[in-house]
Amino acid sequence: MSDLIYEVKDVHFSWPGKFPALCGVDMTIRPGEKIAVIGANGTGKSTLLHLLDGLIFPHQGSVTAFGERLLEHSLFDEQAAHRFRRRVGLVFQNADIQLFCPSVREDIAFGPLQFGVAEEEVNRRIREVAQVLDIHHLLDRVPHQLSIGEKKRVAIASVLAIDPDVYLFDEPTAGLDPLTVRHIIDFMVNANRRGKTIITATHDLHIIGEIADTVYVFGQNKKIVRGGSAESVLNDRALLESNNLIHIHRHHHDGKEHVHQHLPLEQHD
Ligand SMILES: Nc1ncnc2c1ncn2[C@@H]1O[C@H](COP(=O)(O)OP(=O)(O)OP(=O)(O)O)[C@@H](O)[C@H]1O
Ligand SMILES: [Mg+2]
């Protein structure tokens, strides 16, 4: 048995139509790690998470998960696919892709029922995740009629209900209100304390200190331009600036316009 969750080696991937999305990515992820992937729009973060979730496969290089090469034909085998999908859960950047049942309750129950979890336990998990994400009042609603933030919470709930070993979160806090962000971060931190591996793609640098020990920065060249501790990456102004990761504030004060940048850790002073 390998003691690695993922080994990503020299991975290249282009979307149909030949849009390069990853151009030589290497990464090693161990059990219980908290990883963040950051980078400007279009640098390949979501593509990486899709590869780690076995939805697409490298055109060059390899992805190994739990000691086994992740290959399209091996996931055709129903048992192998079930084993893998029980262990890895992806929260999509776009919740609409994730939600397809007539009710929120059914969407949350879908994963566990697929994996043969007993109905009583499924109902317990629905109650539990509804509590974590404060969606009790939405359980009998039609997912497509929810607000964007509500959909996102339901999409996260549907993955939590599977209780995977590895969580892949694609922009989990984008567009959510502050209290919901807090609940989701608390959930991520607690899950990690219970041994779960957490890999998050995000633009929200303020959450990284809590949800990541290691950060990989993806560049416009669709490669990792830097991997390091969260602190070292977040304090590297030149790195964040050159990769379009620093927020630029423009505001008026005493009749004058001020434009300045914020490093993510500066707010904690
Ligand atoms: N379904 C698709 N078909 C064709 N090209 C795609 C598709 N999805 C992504 N791409 C392209 O692949 C590249 C990487 O996209 P990806 O969605 O992985 O970026 P990202 O870092 O997640 O961006 P964002 O911050 O906007 O979410 C981009 O150039 C994008 O245009
Ligand atoms: Mg993305």
> How many structural domains can be distinguished in the coordinates?
1
Bound ions, cofactors and other small molecules, one mention each: adenosine-5'-triphosphate, magnesium ion
In the CATH hierarchy, what is the class? Alpha Beta
**In terms of structural class, how would the helical and strand content be classed?**
alpha/beta
* CATH architecture annotation name: 3-Layer(aba) Sandwich
Describe this protein's structure.
- The protein has 269 residues and is α/β, with parallel strands linked by helices.
- The chain has a single domain (6-93, 164-268), classed as Rossmann fold, CATH 3.40.50.
- The protein contains 10 helices and 12 strands.
- The protein has helices spanning 45-52, 78-87, 95-98, 104-114, 119-132, 148-160, 178-193, 208-211, 230-234, 237-242, and strands spanning 6-15, 19-29, 34-39, 60-65, 68-69, 88-91, 166-170, 197-201, 214-218, 224-229, 247-253, 256-262.
- A 6-stranded mixed β-sheet has the order 6-7-8-3-9-10, with helices on both faces. It has a 4-stranded antiparallel β-sheet with strand order 2-1-4-5, with helices on one face.
- The chain is globular, with a radius of gyration of 19 Å.
- The termini are far apart.
- The model has no long low-confidence stretch (mean pLDDT 92).
- The chain binds adenosine-5'-triphosphate and magnesium ion (MG).
- Adenosine-5'-triphosphate (ATP) binds next to strand 2 and helix 1.
